[in-house]
Structure formats: C-alpha cells, structure tokens
Request: fold
Amino acid sequence: MTKALLGIDGGGTKTHAVIVDLDGNVLGTAANGGANWERIGLQAVQNGLQELIRSAVHDAGITIEDVVESTFALAGIDWDEDKENFIPVINSLQLSGPTHLMNDSFAALFAGIPDGIGIVSIAGTGGKTTGRDSSNTVQTMGMDLGEAGGAGQLVALCLDSIARMHHGIAKKTQMFTLIPTTLGYNDMTEFFTAIARDRIPLDESLAPLIFDLANTGDATAIENVTKVAHQHALDVFGIFSRLDFKGEKVTIIRAGGLHTAGCAIFDQEFEGEVTRLIPNSSIKVLTIPPVFGSVLAAAHSYFAAVPDAFSVHLLTQAGKVVVQ
Reply:
C-alpha cells in the first residue's frame, strides 16, 4: 500500500489536484473547472470534486484508500457555516483519511511560506488577505466590505470613472473611448444601455487593458490602479495588526493576476505602502501553483513535524510539474 497525501486548490474557474507520497514525490495530478459553490452551487462542486479525485487517483496509480490525509482549499469557504454546509460534499468523496477544508487563500499562503507563518495577499478576480502566526489565523471577509476587491474592484472603479467623464464631471482620458470600443461600442449611450441590461461582461478580463492604460500614462487608469493597490496594502497591514509575529520579520506573499501581471504602478504602490506600514517585512511573488500549498497543509496535519526532505522534494517538483 502506498500512503499518499492529496491537495486540492479550487478557484472560480479552475480546480487543481496533486497527490504525493510521504516522501514528497508527486504521484499524480488532475484539473477541471471551478469549485466556488457560491457561483455554481454545492451539487456542481461535489460532482466536479468526485471527477477530479478519480482522475488524480488514476493518474497516481493508487486507490482512494491509499489517501491518508487531504486538504481542500476552495474559493467561497469564508465562514464557519460554509464548512458545515460542505460536510455532505466531503462525505460523498469517500476519502478514508482525515479531510480538511479551508479557503483557497491558505493554499497560496503555504505554497509561498511552507510553514504557513506569514501573510498572503490575493489580488485576482476578487481580493482576500490571510495570515497566520504561531497560534492564530485571521482573514479578510472577501466580500468587498472595507477591503480590496482585486480586478473586480478595478473594473468597477474604471466604469465609474467613464460614467463621470460621460456626465461631464471628470476630464476625459483615453480610457473613455478605449474600454467601450474594446467591448465593441462606439456610442456611449449604447454602451451604458448594454451595461444596464447586462448584455456585456465587465469582468477581470479588462484588467490587462487598464494596466496597459496606466503604464502608458492615462491619469484615470493610474489613479484607479493606485487606489486598488493601496487598499490591498492596507488589508495586509490590517491582518498584520491582528496577529503577533513577536517582532520577527514577516514574509508577505503576493498571489493572483494583479500581483503577477507586472504592472509597475500597481507593484510600486503595493510594496511601497506595505514596506512603510510594516518595515520588518519581506515581500515575495508566488511562483508555484497554489495547489502545492494545499499538499503542504495536508502534510502539516499528517506529520507531527513535516520532514525537511518532504518539503524539498515537493517544492523542487512544484516548479516543474504542470497541473492541467
């Protein structure tokens, strides 16, 4: 019997699974669609996870009974009642070993900081900031109340800016025509009518265009990119203030599309403000898939202390294994 650990990272559009042995060697991987129950419902998430685990187990050449510990890091797991609602889903998977459920931000935290002590800032489709010290875990609510909202917030701010330009309240910049024409509209009344009637998507796919506008000097884009970056930095400081790192240097991980897009304005504002607020900090961009953090979280639960060799083997492969 091969004892194995299972890690799953599920976001809004993609879910990844990795199975490793107790030495940290990758045995199998799998991927399928999103696993955010708030978007697709619990039954769809259950069906997707069942399919994903079957594929991962088959790829690993083991049986489901060989999995001795599992961690599911899923978008939409924000409150205690969410975990309660997921009990039937987890039971349906028929995993024999202990199973742990957490928000997907924790996968990125462990992927960037193997011992899980530090802070992670997620700036992707939405926003989430999570942190752990030696005894406590805290996180933002992830619901756009008093916190940064990632690309969704950025697009909303820019739409508001375009509307203010249209009403004559704000000075028109290149953004005023470029975003509507990119979406196929030359007439502003038709553009706003389509928005009001939900005929066009205003989602994270517009973020690269907004970043390009900022990088080429569009004042409104710069203002909005800076505002979102600043708020994500404040969220990090808020989490830091609620934890006790005992004066030690704090590692902060940046993850998600806005953090990895390479927009100098966003990067400089975020890192500059974090460094000002938390001088004793080290900031890193996540460079491996978060699902490997789910595996590490499972390892922390299984082992009394995760063997160094396990972490080394796992993280060495994390930069090479393509999970798709």
